[in-house]
Amino acid sequence: xxxxxxxxxxxxxxxxxxxxxxxxxxxxxxxxxxxxxxxxxxxxxxxxxxxxxxxxxxxxxxxxxxxxxxxxxxxxxxxxxxxxxxxxxxxxxxxxxxxxxxxxxxxxxxxxxxxxxxxxxxxxxxxxxxxxxxxxxxxxxxxxxxxxxxxxxxxxxxxxxxxxxxxxxxxxxxxxxxxxxxxxxxxxxxxxxxxxxxxxxxxxxxxxxxxxxxxxxxxxxxxxxxxxxxxxxxxxxxxxxxxxxxxxxxxxxxxxxxxxxxxxxxxxxxxxxxxxxxxxxxxxxxxxxxxxxxxxxxxxxxxxxxxxxxxxxxxxxxxxxxxxxxxxxxxxxxxxxxxxxxxxxxxxxxxxxxxxxxxxxxxxxxxxxxxxxxxxxxxxxxxxxxxxxxxxxxxxxxxxxxxxxxxxxxxxxxxxxxxxxxxxxxxxxxxxxxxxxxxxxxxxxxxxxxxxxxxxxxxxxxxxxxxxxxxxxxxxxxxxxxxxxxxxxxxxxxxxxxxxxxxxxxxxxxxxxxxxxxxxxxxxxxxxxxxxxxxxxxxxxxxxxxxxx
Length: 549
Description:
By secondary structure, the chain is an alpha+beta fold. Helix content is 59%, strand content 9%. The radius of gyration is 33 Å and the shape is extended. Residues 1-7 have low confidence and may be disordered.
């Protein structure tokens, strides 16, 4: 067994867990035995292994659930269910930690502080407190010692990634880069000031909108003077998770189903703004992060996992939604090529055929009947089958949309995702064409046309000059030309060897026609032997090439 596994106890714990769950491949990998291609365990077994290994590996599973370009739909579905169910830190221990980490004495800041956690996760836990001014706040505290635990487990994950990188699987999916991505992601989660910045940015983005009433959507306000890298203090929002709350009608005579439809529409429009306008979105809107408040508003909580989309990607996604609504498989294929990275030659006919079959099957169904996980998985898998790789931010977008749609399906099955997107298309294209300031967009376009008008004659004159002086060189890359060149070279080499064999035979025959001596007889035999060996080698090479006929 490797020295690395003999000297540390954590590797022994990992081996014990994976062997107990029946994953023999990891034992062979860590013990230095011969390992072929990785044999991942079934999705449910993998999820159980990650849960048993602890919070860092749960976070790894949550990251992998955002990478449909790496894993099949079955694995994505299983890992998406991972939740960090860990017991809270005892009140006495967390009280000592808070007193050490707070920038000011606790008694000078809070009039009340409940050291019994109301929620606990793998990285931190949440407590309720009251400031001296009487304002109720939520205090998210990092688990003591979590930095050392993360450092230890991340080092092991990176080590295992290096071992797997020697396989074709590791090279195809760039396992080392994936481990580095996970390391950066979990290090960012350890910094609560980063999460506070994300929360503040999302709150500002959703404070204005032309698609919904911003006063009905709430993101907690951060108390920055009390927030550090280990402690985050934010306003307390009184409510319950959306699926367990008792939703009340907002107006007299309004039916409960109408109220649920209003809330669903509010959430969908708030998230479509994040995806397609702001380019900064909540990547984990599962039911536990969506709250229905006592005053009838809806809150979005836990901004630890956020995603970003650049303007070009947002434009492409907007067109993709319009193409899906219009059941335009050809346009979906073209837009996929903008987003995904080709790894090998692409079968466009097969890709378009898969999209056409998919759109015909799913369009027009309500959320109660639409299996969005299957629909999105088929889109991603169709691209993967045609050697296309999706970028990681598309994986986060897909995870966010699937979680949102899953919560919507449970809360109000009558809502249709595509129907909610249709009314927004005009506004989306208007903003993407002219932006928020049409005058500025017009001036920018005029300047670009001016630059084009000035540069075009110069470039055309330069091209004519190159043509007239015969200094213009064309670089043409014809696919398959290299294979043709090799075939011609092989044929020329075989013709040369055939000529050489014939020359040796003829030379030996000429030598034997003269006076026979011992030296001449020996030379003739050598020539015949060489000709026979070369001829035999030539026949074997032709037969092996499969081109005998």
